[in-house]
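In this supplementary section we document a worked example of the pipeline. Step one takes a protein sequence of length 154 as its only input; no multiple sequence alignment statistics are reported here. Step two produces a three-dimensional model, which step three serialises into structure tokens for compact storage. The input and output of this example are shown verbatim.
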Amino acid sequence: MLTTAQLNKKYGVPSANPNFLTTIELPYPMKLAWDMTKTTKKMSCHKLVADKFKKVFDQILEAYGLEKIQELGIDRFGGCFNFRTMRGGTELSKHSWGVAVDLDPERNQLKETSKTARFARPEYKKMIDIFYANGFISLGREKNYDWMHFEIAK
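The serialised model returned by step three reads:
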């Protein structure tokens, strides 16, 4: 996992209004986790990882199909760019650089382990493998908590 110093060096120093963000078009609608009556097909992320994120979501759609994505809740968007500190910490969250995304946060809570987190189930292995193949890591797989969270590895 990248340190704050490594992130600052490669991706720039984050702020509430960074100039390193871009907006990508998602290949399928994502339900907003904080208001499931609303959807988005756009995501703000760091411009240096935009192509990687786009590829991840394209490959997820190809691997699962829209109906299965919706059935599994992979379309529940918890956010990408958010200038803030880590929950319960003092360092900036990887979301402050727009290099991390949270999916289905309601059913993959921060402190959940593989015993209860949805994304720890076998049907999500393909999704997690897609993230890894595109240069991301899963905190669920790496640390067995925060299964919703996927961040750039380099």
